[in-house]
């Protein structure tokens, strides 16, 4: 792996571990924004806070990866179209080899 991977990865992993240790309490994660009277309704789940934080981080990484992948795909397609439309130089006539 590249050294930059370690320079970025180790501090991020350390910060994620510290956040996980500091946020172990359970919280209610509810998908239904209109259930004010019953926060523990059918569309909610109790999870440790660090699970939600790490899930949000993972979701952000996946969305960024997909976005970069699609952008590179578009760029590659445009480049292929440009090179396919380019006129190739005419071939030079072959000279006869000396006898």
Features:
two-stranded antiparallel ribbon; mainly alpha; 99 residues
Topology (elements, then pairings):
Blueprint: H1 3-22, E1 26-30, E2 44-48, H2 49-85
Give a written overview of the molecule.
- This protein is mainly alpha-helical and 99 residues long.
- The chain has a domain at 3-67.
- It has 2 helices and 2 strands; from the N terminus they run αββα.
- It has helices spanning 3-22, 49-85; strands at 26-30, 44-48.
- The model has no long low-confidence stretch (mean pLDDT 81).
Strands of the biggest beta sheet: in what spatial order? 1-2
**Poorly predicted runs of 5 or more residues:** none
Query: What letter string, H or E per element, gives the SSE order?
Result: HEEH
* Alpha plus pi helix count: 2
Strands, count: 2
What is the percentage of strand-forming residues?
5-15%
Summing up helix and strand content along with how strands pair, one would put the structural category as mainly alpha
Largest sheet: 2 strands, antiparallel
Outline: elongated
What is Rg?
28 Å
How far apart lie the N and C ends?
Answer: 58 Å
Overall average pLDDT: 81
Q: Helical content, roughly? A: 55-70%
